[in-house]
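note to self: dont lose this again. the chain is below, predicted strucutre after it. 400 aa total, dont forget to put it in the shared folder this time
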Amino acid sequence: MVEIIRKGELPAPDAVPARLREAAKLALAMTLREPRPAGFPLLFTSDLKLIEPGVSFLHEHGIQRAHTSDTLRTYAEILYDWFDSLEQSGIPWSEVDASDLIAYRDRMLKRPSPHTQRPYSVRTINHRVRGVLRFYGWAVRHHWLASSPLIERAEEFPIARAAWQRRNVARSVERSLFVLRQFEGLPRPLTSAQARELLATLLPPYDLMARWQLYTGLRLSELLRLKLADVLRDPEANAAQTDEPYRVIEVVRKGRKPGYVIAPASLLEETAAYIALHRTAWSRRAMRRRRPSMRAQLFLNARGMPVGKSTYQQNIQRTARAGGFKAMSHVLRATFACWLLARLEHLARGGAAINPLLIVKVLMAHEHIDTTDRYLRAVAIDMPVLTEVLERLLQTEDAS
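---
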């Protein structure tokens, strides 16, 4: 079975046998170009042979191109699953044909995930298939392979493009016979009652984190990157601005792009109270127990450690389920977008010279306007009217 072994630190000279201490000293003194940091994923076969093309692919994207740790983890998981599947079938990676990738895709359609025990979503299957195609395209460009049937076959049977699309759009291997047809559902924002129930039930610091997403539309990764210095006020620079209704907070967006959010004064007041009470107490507890001090991160848990992505997601899901509805962290971001867009649309109909879609695109940090348009379509669906129509239909059926 394929294994992922994380790169470790070089041992100290006194931690190795005496005959190897001189070599350990020399190893520590060596300087390497673009060294792989500790924790970098290394792929090995079942007989512990390094899968060199896979590691080179991860090295280029994680070190040379400086992608985020989440991107590196995603690529590593895709390659791990693909090479493990090939090894179990006894197929060399360089001899893969189109039928092998189709069999890999169809197996995910028929079998549940071994980790979650739930069926794979079409989005997950397409994401993995695209990752495999991207890897083989990279392998051909970097001469690990002279050619690949996957790339040739993908370009041979592209999905027909709509007539309105631009002619100069490059043909992509991701639009091929390997990728399943995928329909994206519209965002389903929380109602006001559901949002109030969620915020009232969540425990600190998760209630404040949910407020930040509801009030600013931050992605979860962007929320976890918030630093204490990002929200603390400079008393000298802002002494005369204590009554401002909002503040512009600089944040690091997806893909390390600089951006900002507009935080209302009420949210900043709640954040200041959390810092003064909970965060300070939890930081002192961590220091008493000799845990590493986390002075930079804004959101800490009761142990004084940075809040983890999975823990926050589980708290959101569990609390929403107890309230009788479903929610995840991204639903909070979608709720912000839909509420804001509905309000801006109301102002625009009243004569305000604004472009609601463009404003939401900027505040949500979307790269493409089509992504923001999904929220416009969700807002266009008047749920109270639809509910009334359904109730009347049911009453008519009961009467008949």
